[in-house]
């Protein structure tokens, strides 16, 4: 489930204009639920349409929607069905939608409107019965002419392409060779995991500077000093290499120098470093994070789905606490709760967005353990954003490299259980989009 900045929904056309902006792409064969937050767009949930649509599935989906939206308690919801062709009355899809709407109403979630979108147009769905024909089809051009779509265009906003199975194509060319060469140079080799504490901390320092540079659009940063090269050796600069992006012919600037990229890829072969980058991206730099990880790195042991008795992130966000003191008091269980977003450590989305961009740039160059780590971290960020489909694709790609990679299996299990990251369930902690085409 995703959330975006406050957006007024004035009409059905506005609603349909908003959905692809909220998701980041035009959905296909999907069921979309949008929470109504007092006339503004609230949480947005997209589900794949099942291969076999039944009334039972409609009721199950409604109960799941009620669970996901419960923390926000929206004043109502909008239901939109995206499918290639308008179904005949009484077919499986109308039966599913009718039961979905009835169950939502029984759960006291008022359905404000129910719409369908096909390849040839859009229209309203009559909710009085599953055997009633769906409303007259209207041209898709109506959506482009809506007030909200015009506002998006004026602001320079657009959506991207739908997620694809080929998550990260392999990088090629001289810059790719240079990055891999530096990854070999910085490879810790047979060091234990956790590796040398100073090495871990120095990679953490470089990562913080990389996030600052990427978040600022790639501005230069100071040297972190002595990063994996022995005493007195300067760290690799956060400069830029040049490489072509996937699907484009012209070169684009790579966020950091080949040496810095190689260092980070070498670090990602360590699960301790991987966990350090995750937590430092999420809650900001803190000397306590490496202390906890180097002393007790059992992240998987401490990560659990949220329990109803635990305090939510939204409640804890109101409490004024010193982060480092809070971390020292809560220890590893508190830090690991970031994985499901259940307690006091609220997200730093500007850092997480920068981390996502950096990991996307690194992933094509990563191999083996580093590739698993990079894809798993990307999957977790998408999970925290509330974008389950994208998270699943990243995690599936990681598990194709190594089916036994524990952290990817854990996150994938969360998705299989239908879990939504706690941050995505609350307005104060939910991701609001870091790019024009983000969801």
Report on the architecture of this protein.
The protein is of the alpha+beta class and 439 residues long. The chain has two domains: 12-154, Cytidine Deaminase, domain 2 (3-Layer(aba) Sandwich); 174-425, no CATH class. The chain contains 17 helices and seven strands. The chain has helices at 12-23, 55-69, 92-106, 141-144, 147-154, 174-186, 197-215, 258-267, 271-283, 288-295, 299-302, 313-316, 323-336, 349-362, 368-385, 388-401, 406-416; strands spanning 30-37, 40-48, 76-82, 111-118, 121-124, 242-243, 252-253. Strands 2-1-3-4-5 form a five-stranded mixed β-sheet, sandwiched between helices. A hairpin with a 2-residue loop joins β1 and β2 (40-48). The radius of gyration is 23 Å and the shape is elongated. 46% of the residues are buried. The model is unreliable at 218-252, 305-320 and 434-439 (pLDDT under 50).
Short account of what is shown:
The chain is an alpha+beta fold. It contains 17 helices and seven strands.
N-to-C terminal Cα separation, in Å?
A: 9 Å
Q: Give the overall shape, derived from the CA principal axes.
A: elongated
DSSP E strands, number: 7
Quaternary organisation of the protein chains:
single chain
Rg (CA only): 23 Å
- Side by side, the strands of the main sheet go 2-1-3-4-5
Order of helices and strands: HEEHEHEEHHHHEEHHHHHHHHHH
Helix-strand makeup class: alpha+beta
What is the number of domains?
Answer: 2
State the helicity in percent bands: 40-55%
Strand content: 5-15%
Q: Mind describing the biggest β-sheet?
A: 5 strands, mixed
How many distinct helices?
17
> Low-confidence stretches at least 5 residues in length (pLDDT < 50)?
218-252, 305-320, 434-439
Report mean pLDDT, rounded to a whole number: 78
